[in-house]
Amino acid sequence: MTLAAILKTKGHDVATTRPTHTIAEALARLAERGIGAVLVEDALGQVLGILSERDIARALATHGAATLGMTAGQLMTTRLVSAKPGTSVEEAMRIMTEGRFRHLPVMEGGLLVGIVSIGDVVKSLLAQKAQEVDSLKAYVVGAI
Questions:
Q1: CA 12 to each of CA 3, 103, 137, 143: distance values in angstroms, whole numbers, following the listed order
Q2: Which of 87, 91, 128, 140 could join 83 in a cystine, given CB atoms 3.0 to 4.6 angstroms apart?
Q3: Confidence of residue 66 (pLDDT cuts 50, 70, 90)
Q4: pLDDT tens for each residue of 3-32
Q5: Which residues contact 96 (CB under 8 A, 6 or more apart)?
Q6: Alpha helix ranges (H) inside the chain
Q7: Rounded Cα gap, residues 53 and 26, in angstroms
Q8: Angstrom distance (rounded) from CA 133 to CA 136
Q9: Domains located in the chain, CATH noted
Q10: pTM
Q11: Regarding beta strands 16-17 and 37-41, do their DSSP bridges make them parallel or antiparallel, or are they unpaired?
């Protein structure tokens, strides 16, 4: 299974924010959507980075309440790791595990086509394994 299959089910909508938006505004966006990260885009839709709950938590530990007045551009992770729609779910899991992050933007031809979370990947892998088990059970029952 590929990331394209996950996005076909999940959808291609991606929550974004501008680099000038405050962390308080970004947190409101995360809370209203029930998500853990937003992509940071410029006015032309160019992806500049990603801002996650983890980025915000680390800043809170260092800067305290002043973090809420900082901007997404100040706290975002700019070394953005992405995948392609054809990337396998197993490869996405490896990328996210080795990189120690939970959100993976999906890009094609330099354009953002979606984002997957570690939860999306795990759910997909579990469904795939359940299907394999069902196939094996059907094979064994048919072979008897």
A1: 11, 14, 35, 42
A2: 87
A3: very high
A4: 999 999 999 999 999 999 999 999 999 999
A5: 102, 104, 118, 121
A6: 3-10, 23-33, 53-63, 72-75, 89-99, 118-143
A7: 10
A8: 5
A9: 3-143 (3.10.580.10)
A10: 0.86
A11: parallel
